[in-house]
Amino acid sequence: MSAPENDYAFGKDLTRRLRGFQGPPRRGLAKWQARQIFLLAVALTGLFYLLVSTQNRFFQPDVLQITLVIGALGTWRFGWWFTHAVRAEIYRRVKWPGMRARANCVWQAGWRPRRLHIQMTTYFEEPAITKRVIGSILGQIRRERIPTTLYIGTGSAYDELIIRSFVETHAQDISDDLAELVFIRQNQPGKRMAIGLILRAINRNGVHPDDLVIFMDGDALYGQDVLEKTLSMFGADPELQALTTDEEVICYGPKWIANWLDMRFAQRRLAMQSHAMSDKVLTLTGRMSVFRAQHMLSERFIRTIEADHLDHWLWGRFRFLSGDDKSTWYHMLTRGSKMTYVPDATVFTIEVIKENGLERMIQNFRRWSGNMLRNGSRAIALGPRRVKPFIWWCIVDQRIAMWTMMVSPTLAILAAFVDPLYLWSALIWVVFSRIVLCLFLFRYSRTVDLSWPFILYFNQVINASVKIFMIFHLSKQKWSNRGNQSAGGGGGLVARAQNWTAKAQLIIAVASFVTGLAIYIGLLPTPVWL
Description:
Elements: H1 7-19, H2 34-53, H3 64-108, E1 116-121, H4 127-144, E2 148-154, H5 157-170, E3 179-185, H6 191-204, E4 212-217, E5 220-222, H7 226-236, E6 240-252, H8 255-276, E7 288-292, H9 299-307, E8 309-312, E9 316-319, H10 324-334, E10 338-352, H11 357-381, H12 384-387, H13 389-418, H14 421-441, H15 452-471, E11 477-479, E12 485-487, H16 493-520
Parallel strand pairs: 1-2, 1-4, 2-3, 6-10
Antiparallel strand pairs: 4-7, 5-10, 6-7, 8-9, 11-12
Helix pairs in contact: 1-4, 2-14, 3-7, 3-8, 3-13, 4-5, 6-9, 8-15, 9-10, 10-11, 11-13, 11-15, 13-14, 13-15, 14-15
């Protein structure tokens, strides 16, 4: 569905969609409709019929070695998925209830932060979204009565006029002592510089180390009681330094993109709860994260956001364009800080997709994967003791998984040259295995969507392919959300040499990968020098 054409229609549609998220999410079979149960039963019956009626090609002598590799990798990947699922359940059922109970106790006893600082960046956002976001913030300030300064980083007067007009109309009952609005007009391009300017303004305003600071985006809409549910965690746990929240998505764009984003957020919930068992997370999401203000007093923290960079043997020193949430996360890792995830505090991400859906999907993967790869190597270098063993291995696994994910489809295609029916058997297995994985994911979604098994596999293959490309092109960055920024695309002689070297590396790596698998299955002869 495309976005409504005017502010009134947009706001009305947002209200309708948000109403669908009210109340606790349904659990178990309550999520399922009779039609979905019927379709799942038909799909499983059909797969079972194909398995028993189609000759099993997996254990034919000429392709047995292929099956052994695919089976070993499948066992590893499924085992890793199952490990996350078990850890997430332990967090949700055992660890989290105690954390929430302690936070509720300190909040009900009257604990509040001395002052709350909210830093938000916005850039030519849809007016209806901006008004709803500011309204959600003001509503919770009005309710909680926490002295708050709202710093808004903008790139022009466009967003400022919308916000100022809304506040003047809808916040007349909020005193200046309770809430203060500060605009920070950035004088250098990029979201990172906007955040840096805001943090310096927070410092000039006399921030106290025990204050709390919220990092959020201009399209992040607070759900119910977000301030109470997040801020109370810091009152209950003096060691906690940062946290991030649950997210839901409201998408204006192609239906399949909306389904893909819903699936991504379900994956995020499962993974975040698993990671939080180690008192760490893999990202302090830019949509909504909360920090102790003592970190804002650190020039190193501010410079990490403003000018984070990587020194690379091929690309030299290059600055990061996006990924400020990964930079703050890395800084917290270097300090050994305790971090957590709050599953019952929901922030709604409003996505308006006007361009081609597939192009937007690949752009997002390039941005997410690039941010992960650029920060992953230095996080790994911190070692398992600083990062925590499980989280450290999660980061290592991200770099391994992009190659292991491509082994099975590549082997299945190569095996078709040996036994054409092998590809059919592999396809049956792919559909069945993704249905099983999605049965886990449905536990972390509000609704059941039977397109997810197909979207999940498509997501995995595209994501792995983009990561393989990005690992050789770390300096290439593009961010269409903030003025269509890009980096790493210079046209000079040095830039052309760097790009050709990166392409050569990519071609050699992919060719070696495919050739090695072809030799393993006997499709190509083993070189005499091996």
